[in-house]
Amino acid sequence: YAALSYCWGTESCFRLTSTTIRLLEVGVLTAQLPQTIRDAVYATLQLGLEWLWVDSLCIIQDSREDWEIEAAKMGDTYQGCSVCIAALGATCNSDGLFAIRNPQLYAPCFLAMNARGESIYAYPWYIDLSEHPHPLHLRGWVLQERLLPSRTIGFGAYLTWNCREAAVNEFDLLGEEKRGTSELSAKFSNLCLVQPLTVPSTPGVTSESHQIRKLWRLMIQDYSHTKLTVKTDKLMAISGLIATIEKRTGWKNIYGLWLPFMLPNLLWMVSRTSTETARTGLRPSWSWIAVDGP
C-alpha cells in the first residue's frame, strides 16, 4: 500500500466521521475528495498498487478514542508502506500533487548534432534547492512521515525520490546518486532502520549510542521549526520515531528526553535569534516540549 503525506490546510473537506463512515464503506466517487487525495489515488494506481492510506479517510475524525488508537500506530503505518507519496508543494488539500511548470527550466534542451553525430544540449541554470523549502516540511507530523518510510516520491515544484539507497531529484541530470550522508533521513535510516538490531548494551558512551544521541538532537532541532495545529500533539506527532529508537537501543524516553542520558538532555536551550519561541503550556517545564519554537 501507499501512504499519503500532505497538508490539510484550513478548508473543510470530505473526511471519515461517525456520519460518513457508512457512506465510505459503500464507496464514494473520487470527485468528492480533495484534489490532493484524488491525485494520490491516481499516482497509487499508476504505481501498480491497490491501497492508499490517508489519515483523513482512515481515522474517524470526530472520535477521540479512534484518533488516539490510530495516531499511536501512525509510525508503523508509514514505516510499513511500500511507498510514501509526499505532496511537497501543496499548502492545503485542494492544491493537488502535480504542478504546472515550464519544462525548459528543469530538463536539458536539445540544440543540434555536431559533426561527429553527438547531441548538443543546453542545460538549465543550477538551482539552489535549499532556497526553495517544501511547504509540507513545515508541518510537525511530517517529520516522522519523512523519516520512517523506506521509499518516498515527492511531488512539488520538482520531483524527488528518497529511499535507503539514494536521495535524488530531477535536477540530477547525469543520474548521479546522492547518498545523502548529510541528510537527516539517511542518517536515521542508517542508524535506526537498516543496521541489524543488537542486544542493547548498558548505557554508555559507545560510538553507536553517541551517533544516535547526536541524531536525536538534529531531529529535535528540525522538529522545533515546524508547526502543529494542536499543541498537545507535540510528543504524539513523533511517537513513531521515539518507538523506533526505543526498539533499536532499549532506552526509555521520558517527555522527549532519554532516561539513560537525562542529565545532559536537560541542557537544552531556545534559539537566541528566534522571535517565534513561546511556551506551549505542556508539562513538565524542564523538557523541550514545553517550548514552541526553535
UniProtKB/TrEMBL annotation:
Transmembrane segments: none annotated. It comes from the Eukaryota. Residues 1-145 form the Heterokaryon incompatibility domain. InterPro entries: HET. Pfam families: HET. This is HET-domain-containing protein. It comes from Hyaloscypha hepaticicola.
